[in-house]
Amino acid sequence: MWNDRTGRLPRCFAFYGLGNLFSTRLDRQRADRQVKDEGNTVSEIDRRLSGPGDGLTILGKSAEGAEMETVRDSNREAALAEAKALLDAGDSDQIILTATKRILETLQEINGPLCDAIAPGLISASLVIRCIARKAEEALASIVAIVELGHSYPATALLRQMCEELIFAKFLRTLPRADADEYVRLRARLEIHEGIKAQDSFFTSQQEKYNWPDESDPRTLPKLPPDAEALAHALKNKLKAIGDRNGWGKKPKPTAKEMATQGGLDEVYGFFYHAASSSVHASLHHLLRMVWVDSSAGHGDISSRHLEQHYRRVALIYGAWIANQVIEVITDEFPGAFPENKEDSFGIWMAIVVAPAVVHRSPPIVTSRELE
Asked: Cα 185 to chain center, whole Å?
């Protein structure tokens, strides 16, 4: 995807050749070992990495101060050395995990100044984007932690929130800033109203069902005011007016697909949103792929762990991919937020994740293994 703001390719494509070599190298390793492996695959990379910068083209490198240039070069060489060592070890899953961790570290470095010890102020679209940035960081950190525990399927559910909030952040930036700020304030108020209404309805019904008294503490449990319905109606009308001005019609909020289209993320919606949604809904595809039968033994068993490696790669690769797109939104909203001395090293790790995934169309939503 071309970076519309800068007119340059995204950072990872500066090292696209590295990613391709990574893919070929892993292909060769799997062929040599005759290992059936549905994951990502980069042959000459050890030779290419044997000399500093050999075989790599770094795009869009700007003139920087000597100190910044030195740090940037040092970070790049360290990333190349670490990548080469991982490739020499031949463990593709460890390569993907390490690359995801390095991408997470960069996101954490970006978010520190944006999210820690911030000055108080009004709710705004800019504040919401900061929240999305930190939440993407926390989601990716959780994905890494869950994957390392060996229970990767639940980690894929986190992709849904990352995807939806990426779409929402990009959508907010398409609105006139005054409308974006008003929209998030009104939506926040309406969502709080809906939350209080839902909890009040549920606990009231349970107390009536079992004939139990209401002993809730009004100091900790908010309740709706008498004119709540009128307030909600007024909030919805104001939101409809914003929708009417900005192209999603007279309704309180656009659909996820409408937001994706307005934000130029139709491809993200079509693939990531679809793939991630199956992890949080009652998907027959995901339920039935848990069943594996041993024909020789005449029985089978049910577990998501039959596709553990597949889910591991889905969670890590697509989590890193979405996090990178969140970073693009952050740096559009807050120019200068990306640490310049990490441009090259970050690009290396993103290339290792993205290039093989694109070239090999992997990991897929539907695997050949489950169709055998």
From this structure: 25
- Does 178 fall in a domain? no
Which token pair is 92?
A: 């593709």
Residue 5 has pLDDT above 50, yes or no: no
pLDDT digits (tens, 9 = 90+) for 204-244: 999 999 999 999 999 999 999 999 999 999 999 999 999 99
The two beta strands, 299-302 and 291-294, are antiparallel
DSSP secondary-structure letter at 289?
A: T
Q: What is the mean pLDDT of the chain?
A: 86
Which two three-digit tokens encode residue 96? 């993907």
CA distance 148 to 67: 37
Q: How far is CA 326 from CA 157, 170, 265, 297, in A?
A: 17, 9, 12, 48
Q: What share of the chain is helix, strand, coil (3-state, %, to 5)?
A: 65, 0, 30
Beta-carbon count within 10 A of 156 CB: 26
Q: Give the residue numbers spanning the domain of 77.
A: 1-157+309-372
d(CA 268, CA 166): 9
Q: Which amino acid is at 241?
A: A
DSSP one-letter code for 293 = E
The two tokens of residue 249 are: 């019609």
Within a domain: residue 199? no
Q: What's the rounded Cα separation, in Å, for the pair 17 and 2?
A: 17
Q: Cα 52–58–62 angle (5° rounding)? A: 115
Other beta carbons within 10 Å of 51: 8
Q: How many domains does the chain have?
A: 1
Mean pLDDT of 104-133: 96
Between 21 and 2, the more confident residue is 21
Within-domain flag for 179: no
Q: What are the phi and psi torsion angles at 244 (to 5°)?
A: -65, -35
**Bridge partners (DSSP) listed for residue 103:** none
Report yes or no: 328 and 302 within 8 Å, Cβ to Cβ.
Answer: no
In angstroms, the Cα distances linking 33 to 21, 30, 204 are 19, 5, 63
How many Å apart are CA 109 and CA 338, to the nearest integer?
8
DSSP structure class, residue 291? E
In a domain, 231, yes or no: no
